[in-house]
Protein backbone atom coordinates (compact mmCIF):
# COMPACT_ATOMS: atom_id res chain seq x y z
CA UNK A 1 0.00 0.00 0.00
CA UNK A 2 1.26 3.48 -0.84
CA UNK A 3 2.33 5.70 2.05
CA UNK A 4 0.82 9.14 2.48
CA UNK A 5 2.32 10.04 5.86
CA UNK A 6 5.36 8.55 7.60
CA UNK A 7 7.73 9.79 10.27
CA UNK A 8 10.53 8.36 12.41
CA UNK A 9 10.57 9.35 16.07
CA UNK A 10 13.49 7.41 17.54
CA UNK A 11 12.65 3.77 16.95
CA UNK A 12 8.94 4.47 16.40
CA UNK A 13 7.59 4.69 12.87
CA UNK A 14 4.03 5.91 12.29
CA UNK A 15 1.98 5.70 9.13
CA UNK A 16 -1.57 6.44 8.08
CA UNK A 17 -3.39 6.21 4.80
CA UNK A 18 -6.72 5.51 3.15
CA UNK A 19 -7.20 2.71 0.65
CA UNK A 20 -10.20 2.24 -1.61
CA UNK A 21 -12.04 -0.99 -2.32
CA UNK A 22 -12.08 -2.43 -5.81
CA UNK A 23 -15.89 -2.32 -5.62
CA UNK A 24 -16.36 0.82 -3.55
CA UNK A 25 -15.92 2.19 -0.08
CA UNK A 26 -12.73 2.92 1.79
CA UNK A 27 -10.57 1.78 4.69
CA UNK A 28 -8.47 4.23 6.70
CA UNK A 29 -5.64 2.89 8.81
CA UNK A 30 -3.20 4.23 11.38
CA UNK A 31 -0.23 2.10 12.46
CA UNK A 32 2.70 2.56 14.82
CA UNK A 33 5.79 0.32 14.57
CA UNK A 34 8.87 0.03 16.75
CA UNK A 35 11.56 -0.92 14.25
CA UNK A 36 13.95 -2.00 17.03
CA UNK A 37 11.63 -4.40 18.88
CA UNK A 38 9.23 -5.29 16.06
CA UNK A 39 6.17 -4.39 18.15
CA UNK A 40 3.32 -2.73 16.27
CA UNK A 41 -0.23 -1.55 16.92
CA UNK A 42 -2.90 0.38 15.13
CA UNK A 43 -6.47 0.64 13.92
CA UNK A 44 -8.52 0.41 10.74
CA UNK A 45 -11.87 2.06 10.07
CA UNK A 46 -13.92 0.56 7.25
CA UNK A 47 -16.51 2.63 5.41
CA UNK A 48 -18.64 0.39 3.15
CA UNK A 49 -15.38 -1.17 1.98
CA UNK A 50 -15.69 -3.95 -0.62
CA UNK A 51 -12.95 -5.72 -2.54
CA UNK A 52 -15.06 -8.59 -3.88
CA UNK A 53 -18.26 -6.90 -5.00
CA UNK A 54 -20.25 -9.14 -2.63
CA UNK A 55 -19.79 -7.88 0.93
CA UNK A 56 -19.42 -4.28 2.11
CA UNK A 57 -17.84 -3.80 5.54
CA UNK A 58 -18.14 -0.84 7.92
CA UNK A 59 -16.78 -0.22 11.39
CA UNK A 60 -13.60 -0.13 13.48
CA UNK A 61 -10.89 -2.75 14.05
CA UNK A 62 -7.88 -2.47 16.36
CA UNK A 63 -4.79 -4.66 16.15
CA UNK A 64 -1.34 -5.27 17.63
CA UNK A 65 1.48 -7.74 17.17
CA UNK A 66 5.14 -8.55 17.04
CA UNK A 67 7.50 -9.11 14.10
CA UNK A 68 10.93 -10.69 14.23
CA UNK A 69 13.00 -7.70 13.10
CA UNK A 70 15.67 -9.92 11.55
CA UNK A 71 13.47 -12.28 9.52
CA UNK A 72 10.30 -10.13 9.30
CA UNK A 73 8.48 -13.27 10.46
CA UNK A 74 5.12 -12.61 12.16
CA UNK A 75 5.43 -13.90 15.74
CA UNK A 76 2.25 -12.60 17.36
CA UNK A 77 -0.86 -10.91 16.06
CA UNK A 78 -4.21 -10.00 17.60
CA UNK A 79 -7.14 -7.91 16.55
CA UNK A 80 -10.50 -7.00 17.99
CA UNK A 81 -13.65 -5.62 16.43
CA UNK A 82 -16.71 -4.01 17.97
CA UNK A 83 -19.87 -3.45 15.92
CA UNK A 84 -18.18 -4.34 12.65
CA UNK A 85 -21.03 -4.62 10.17
CA UNK A 86 -21.25 -6.41 6.86
CA UNK A 87 -23.88 -6.21 4.14
CA UNK A 88 -24.14 -8.87 1.44
CA UNK A 89 -27.14 -8.59 -0.85
CA UNK A 90 -30.21 -8.68 1.41
CA UNK A 91 -28.19 -10.06 4.35
CA UNK A 92 -26.86 -7.84 7.11
CA UNK A 93 -24.79 -8.91 10.10
CA UNK A 94 -22.77 -7.41 12.94
CA UNK A 95 -19.58 -8.89 14.41
CA UNK A 96 -17.99 -8.43 17.83
CA UNK A 97 -14.97 -10.40 18.95
CA UNK A 98 -11.28 -10.98 19.47
CA UNK A 99 -8.83 -13.12 17.51
CA UNK A 100 -5.19 -13.76 18.39
CA UNK A 101 -2.37 -15.68 16.75
CA UNK A 102 0.81 -16.87 18.45
CA UNK A 103 3.47 -18.18 16.10
CA UNK A 104 6.40 -17.89 18.53
CA UNK A 105 6.35 -21.60 19.39
CA UNK A 106 5.32 -24.84 17.72
CA UNK A 107 2.51 -25.55 17.29
CA UNK A 108 1.21 -22.12 16.35
CA UNK A 109 -2.01 -21.24 18.18
CA UNK A 110 -5.05 -19.24 17.05
CA UNK A 111 -7.71 -18.34 19.63
CA UNK A 112 -11.00 -16.59 19.02
CA UNK A 113 -14.27 -15.57 20.61
CA UNK A 114 -16.82 -14.10 18.24
CA UNK A 115 -20.45 -12.96 18.26
CA UNK A 116 -22.41 -12.71 15.02
CA UNK A 117 -25.78 -10.98 15.00
CA UNK A 118 -28.22 -11.42 12.14
CA UNK A 119 -29.55 -7.89 11.87
CA UNK A 120 -32.82 -9.04 10.26
CA UNK A 121 -33.79 -11.60 12.90
CA UNK A 122 -31.76 -10.14 15.84
CA UNK A 123 -30.51 -13.67 16.56
CA UNK A 124 -26.95 -13.91 17.90
CA UNK A 125 -24.58 -16.80 17.15
CA UNK A 126 -21.46 -17.33 19.25
CA UNK A 127 -18.09 -19.03 18.86
CA UNK A 128 -16.61 -19.23 22.36
CA UNK A 129 -12.98 -19.79 23.39
CA UNK A 130 -12.26 -21.58 20.13
CA UNK A 131 -8.63 -22.64 19.81
CA UNK A 132 -6.83 -23.94 16.74
CA UNK A 133 -3.32 -25.38 16.75
CA UNK A 134 -1.28 -25.57 13.55
CA UNK A 135 1.74 -27.87 13.36
CA UNK A 136 3.77 -27.35 10.19
CA UNK A 137 5.68 -30.21 8.61
CA UNK A 138 7.67 -30.50 5.39
CA UNK A 139 4.73 -30.95 3.03
CA UNK A 140 1.63 -30.44 5.16
CA UNK A 141 0.14 -28.80 8.24
CA UNK A 142 -1.84 -30.56 10.98
CA UNK A 143 -4.80 -28.56 12.30
CA UNK A 144 -6.74 -29.25 15.50
CA UNK A 145 -9.69 -27.28 16.88
CA UNK A 146 -11.43 -27.08 20.26
CA UNK A 147 -14.14 -24.85 21.68
CA UNK A 148 -17.87 -24.22 21.88
CA UNK A 149 -20.49 -22.94 19.46
CA UNK A 150 -23.90 -21.48 20.39
CA UNK A 151 -26.93 -21.40 18.12
CA UNK A 152 -29.90 -19.33 19.37
CA UNK A 153 -32.37 -21.99 18.20
CA UNK A 154 -30.54 -25.15 19.26
CA UNK A 155 -28.15 -24.19 22.08
CA UNK A 156 -24.50 -25.13 22.68
CA UNK A 157 -22.29 -27.80 21.18
CA UNK A 158 -18.65 -28.48 22.04
CA UNK A 159 -16.06 -29.02 19.33
CA UNK A 160 -13.00 -31.27 19.63
CA UNK A 161 -10.47 -32.96 17.37
CA UNK A 162 -10.76 -36.72 17.15
CA UNK A 163 -7.58 -36.65 15.04
CA UNK A 164 -5.77 -33.68 13.47
CA UNK A 165 -6.89 -32.55 10.04
CA UNK A 166 -3.90 -32.96 7.74
CA UNK A 167 -3.81 -30.48 4.86
CA UNK A 168 -1.09 -30.91 2.26
CA UNK A 169 0.33 -27.72 0.78
CA UNK A 170 -1.52 -26.89 -2.42
CA UNK A 171 -4.75 -28.58 -1.26
CA UNK A 172 -7.84 -26.69 -0.15
CA UNK A 173 -9.31 -29.44 2.05
CA UNK A 174 -7.78 -31.96 4.48
CA UNK A 175 -6.88 -35.49 3.40
CA UNK A 176 -7.08 -37.06 6.88
CA UNK A 177 -8.52 -36.22 10.26
CA UNK A 178 -11.65 -36.26 12.40
CA UNK A 179 -13.72 -33.49 14.02
CA UNK A 180 -16.21 -34.42 16.77
CA UNK A 181 -19.14 -32.28 17.97
CA UNK A 182 -20.96 -33.14 21.23
CA UNK A 183 -24.50 -31.95 21.86
CA UNK A 184 -27.29 -32.49 24.36
CA UNK A 185 -27.75 -35.68 26.34
CA UNK A 186 -29.77 -38.17 24.30
CA UNK A 187 -32.53 -40.54 25.37
CA UNK A 188 -29.96 -43.32 25.87
CA UNK A 189 -28.19 -41.28 28.55
CA UNK A 190 -25.02 -40.20 26.73
CA UNK A 191 -24.09 -37.15 24.75
CA UNK A 192 -25.44 -36.95 21.21
CA UNK A 193 -22.57 -36.57 18.75
CA UNK A 194 -21.68 -35.80 15.17
CA UNK A 195 -18.41 -36.80 13.54
CA UNK A 196 -16.82 -35.35 10.40
CA UNK A 197 -14.14 -37.56 8.84
CA UNK A 198 -11.81 -36.50 6.03
CA UNK A 199 -11.58 -39.36 3.51
CA UNK A 200 -9.42 -37.55 0.96
CA UNK A 201 -8.64 -34.02 -0.17
CA UNK A 202 -11.89 -34.07 -2.16
CA UNK A 203 -14.26 -36.25 -0.07
CA UNK A 204 -15.53 -36.56 3.49
CA UNK A 205 -18.20 -38.29 5.58
CA UNK A 206 -20.57 -37.18 8.35
CA UNK A 207 -21.91 -39.57 11.00
CA UNK A 208 -24.26 -38.95 13.94
CA UNK A 209 -25.14 -40.61 17.22
CA UNK A 210 -28.68 -39.28 17.52
CA UNK A 211 -29.71 -40.90 20.83
CA UNK A 212 -26.55 -40.81 22.94
CA UNK A 213 -25.83 -44.54 23.09
CA UNK A 214 -22.25 -44.17 21.80
CA UNK A 215 -23.08 -45.71 18.41
CA UNK A 216 -23.16 -43.64 15.21
CA UNK A 217 -26.57 -44.60 13.81
CA UNK A 218 -26.71 -42.15 10.86
CA UNK A 219 -24.26 -41.89 7.99
CA UNK A 220 -24.21 -39.37 5.16
CA UNK A 221 -22.21 -41.60 2.85
CA UNK A 222 -19.36 -40.14 0.84
CA UNK A 223 -19.69 -36.39 0.22
CA UNK A 224 -17.64 -33.89 -1.69
CA UNK A 225 -16.21 -31.22 0.62
CA UNK A 226 -18.11 -28.48 -1.21
CA UNK A 227 -21.39 -30.30 -0.44
CA UNK A 228 -21.10 -29.58 3.28
Describe what you observe in this structure.
With 228 residues, this protein is mainly beta. The protein is 0% helix and 68% strand. It has a 15-stranded antiparallel sheet with strand order 1-2-3-4-5-6-7-8-9-10-11-12-13-14-15, with no helix packed on it. A hairpin with a 3-residue loop joins β9 and β10. It is globular. The two termini are 36 Å apart. The N terminus is likely disordered.
Distance, first to last CA:
36 Å
Sheet with the most strands: spatial strand order: 1-2-3-4-5-6-7-8-9-10-11-12-13-14-15
What structural category arises from helix and sheet content? mainly beta
Q: What percentage of amino acids are in beta strands?
A: over 45%
Q: Major sheet: size, sense and barrel closure? A: 15 strands, antiparallel
- The strand count comes to 15
Could you give the topology of this structure?
Blueprint: E1 5-9, E2 12-20, E3 26-34, E4 39-49, E5 55-67, E6 74-88, E7 91-102, E8 108-118, E9 124-136, E10 140-151, E11 155-168, E12 176-185, E13 191-198, E14 203-209, E15 218-224
Antiparallel strand pairs: 1-2, 2-3, 3-4, 4-5, 5-6, 6-7, 7-8, 8-9, 9-10, 10-11, 11-12, 12-13, 13-14, 14-15
Question: How would you briefly describe this protein structure?
Answer:
This protein has 228 residues and is mainly beta. The protein is built from no helices and 15 strands. It has strands spanning 5-9, 12-20, 26-34, 39-49, 55-67, 74-88, 91-102, 108-118, 124-136, 140-151, 155-168, 176-185, 191-198, 203-209, 218-224.
Amino acid sequence: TSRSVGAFVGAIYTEKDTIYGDYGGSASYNIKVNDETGAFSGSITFNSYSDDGVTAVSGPVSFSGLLDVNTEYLMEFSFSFDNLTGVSGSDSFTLDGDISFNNAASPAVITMTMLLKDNHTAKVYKLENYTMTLTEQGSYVDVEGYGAYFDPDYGYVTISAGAPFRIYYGDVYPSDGVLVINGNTGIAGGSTMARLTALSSSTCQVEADTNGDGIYDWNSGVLNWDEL
